[in-house]
Amino acid sequence: MVHHELHIVGTGTKLNWLRAAVLGANDGIVSVSGIVVGVAGASNSLSFILTAGVAGLTAGALSMAVGEYVSVSTQRDTEKALLEKERLELQNEPDAELEELAAIYERKGLTKATARTVAAELTAHDAFAAHVEAELRIDPNDLTNPWHAAYASAAAFLAGAMIPLLAIALPPASARVPVTFAAVLVALIITGTLSAHVGGANKLAATLRVVAGGIIAMAITFGIGRMFGVIGT
């Protein structure tokens, strides 16, 4: 009997790491820029602005790390469960597994006889490796690592968050918000272009979405900050 397995593509590739890094950096840029611009709208106190920014940076990085760790741990547990299930099926139902492997190659375009021959030869060489590669697309020697994912996610968020934090801290008070808007705009154009590149999407459309989202977030938080600043005076 031919049965269908869940296909999981390993996430340990460079492409996936780059995509996660770009998205993490983008989150850091948008989140912290919204915080510091919002506080700057309410107060000229650099200490208040930086306190809020550093708090947002720390909380965001930790949140990203924990979220990524939990997510990738679940992915890894699923991969391990599927690999163990495949081992048991190969031990208990070797004939059915051989037919399943042959059917996979037949669906890829081989004739029935050739598919059967290929499946038999691969099974004789290394049945487990042949099945997990063809059915599950999992490399047992390169399973997802939750700690690596957590570190990378936190580092990417921190890298992105430092841009608005430095942009708001370095200029004089009168130029803080305009400089931050400009720095964030440039940073979002870069991350939007990179995310489109690694995802194979339209660069202009993807970049416009990222930039528009960031600018809208900053505009709203700045407006809220100004409103509370006026109310508090």
From TrEMBL:
<keyword id="KW-0812">Transmembrane</keyword>
<keyword id="KW-0472">Membrane</keyword>
<dbReference type="InterPro" id="IPR008217">
    <property type="entry name" value="Ccc1_fam"/>
</dbReference>
<dbReference type="GO" id="GO:0012505">
    <property type="term" value="C:endomembrane system"/>
</dbReference>
<dbReference type="GO" id="GO:0005384">
    <property type="term" value="F:manganese ion transmembrane transporter activity"/>
</dbReference>
<feature type="transmembrane region" description="Helical">
    <location>
        <begin position="46"/>
        <end position="66"/>
    </location>
</feature>
<dbReference type="GO" id="GO:0030026">
    <property type="term" value="P:intracellular manganese ion homeostasis"/>
</dbReference>
<protein>
    <recommendedName>
        <fullName>VIT family protein</fullName>
    </recommendedName>
</protein>
<keyword id="KW-1133">Transmembrane helix</keyword>
<feature type="transmembrane region" description="Helical">
    <location>
        <begin position="20"/>
        <end position="39"/>
    </location>
</feature>
<feature type="transmembrane region" description="Helical">
    <location>
        <begin position="149"/>
        <end position="170"/>
    </location>
</feature>
<feature type="transmembrane region" description="Helical">
    <location>
        <begin position="210"/>
        <end position="231"/>
    </location>
</feature>
<dbReference type="Pfam" id="PF01988">
    <property type="entry name" value="VIT1"/>
</dbReference>
<feature type="transmembrane region" description="Helical">
    <location>
        <begin position="177"/>
        <end position="198"/>
    </location>
</feature>
